[in-house]
Amino acid sequence: MAPVDEIPTHVRLGVSQSRLILRGVFHRCPVCGARGSIVKWMWIRARCPTCDLGFQRIEGQQIGYIGLNTILCFSLTFVVLLVGTIIMIPDIRSVPLLIAALIPAGLGPLVFLPSCRLAWVGIDLIMRPLRPDEVDPRFAGR
How many alpha carbons lie under 13 Å from residue 100 in its C-beta half-sphere? Predict the structure, then answer.
């Protein structure tokens, strides 16, 4: 059997790689850009209602978006701690700093979950090209 030439997803769809990720960040399907993938804030559909892309392309894909969410929240918490410390120099008060850091650490994972989940699908599409049988043929490109 001859190897199949894999066409990169962004070439197949005619969009940039950053657009695939940004569509996810703004709660749109990375392939078709349609809204409606998120049912409620914490619940996402299994497939895009427009192009039929499965949002869990492989077993264990949730590890990617959980990791992305964790990195984003840790980074945001670090920035809050760093900026708070710089602002308070020379009299650094730990209690207000701790309270300020608890806000992104506690709410961040909930706030960023939908964006991270769909952005990870976009990242996955960049790493593992879209197969024509994964989506509705109208959106499969070439």
Answer: 16
